[in-house]
Amino acid sequence: MKQLPIPQMSGSLRLSGGHIAYAPAEWSYHKHQHPTYELLYCLEGRATEWINGNSVSLSEGDWLYLNRGVMHSTMTEPDSVFTYFTVHFDMEDEGMKSALSRCSYWCFPDGDTGMAAQLTELRRVLEDGEEADTNLNVRKLRIQSVITTLVAELLLVLEKAEPGPELSGASRKDTELAHTIEKLLTEAVFTSETIESIAKRLYISRNHCTAIFLKVYGIAPHRYLSLMKLKKAKELILRSDDSLESIGERLGFSCASSFSRQFRRWTGHAPAVLRRTDKPRR
């Protein structure tokens, strides 16, 4: 029998949230951005996504892919509800990151992709998870399996997509450098490292570091790092009993007041407010 080797892979899929949800008519969600990739599907109704100032209409059967750091907001139609699926994810494999970074966003119908069929399986897994005797580890793997299949189909769609004005146009050299910067930014979340220090480690200027990262990812590196730190800060505040001072230190801040000031700039309120607000649900 001919040997069929399985290649070594490091394309681990990291999920950072998602849901199947319903939004009423005339509902809106404010302008925002994520440090992860986003995939959205319209199950029912209509909505408009405003992406970097551009209007994208979504109706039943439409998929929307958003690259990391892309500013967007959502608004449903006055006479239509909006039932949708969305997931935020990241990849470790540099080749997959490069493929996903080819465009800022891409809207396409389900058509022959078969991606929508995967949502039926996902819904079944999520509903089965509500049963008390469900094995949590098995459920997690099944969810990851479905999302991995969706991402695989998405990569095929992006590969066949016609180049448009939203493509970064970055060279292979620039893309590889941007991926290296992104890796160092991720490692910097729990340190006090700055964009300037990262640039020095790569023997490039801060301006060049910013320009390359912005060209490939569509977001400035300092903004990307801030989003990553904010995400981790919220996770630690809501999911741990660590003191705010300890959380601030873990994220590279010199003291609790410094962390609190930065958190206020990020969100408009102190970290203690988030913890108090969440207290009754914990």
TrEMBL record:
Keyword GTP-binding: no
InterPro entries: AraC-bd, Homeodomain-like_sf, HTH-like, HTH_AraC, HTH_AraC-typ_CS, RmlC-like_jellyroll
Entry-linked Pfam families: AraC_binding, HTH_18
Gene3D superfamilies per the UniProt record, alphabetical: Homeodomain-like, Jelly Rolls
MF GO annotations: DNA-binding transcription factor activity; sequence-specific DNA binding
UniProt keyword terms in alphabetical order: DNA-binding, Transcription, Transcription regulation
Start and end residues of each HTH araC/xylS-type domain: 175-277
Protein name, as recorded: HTH araC/xylS-type domain-containing protein
Organism of provenance: Paenibacillus swuensis
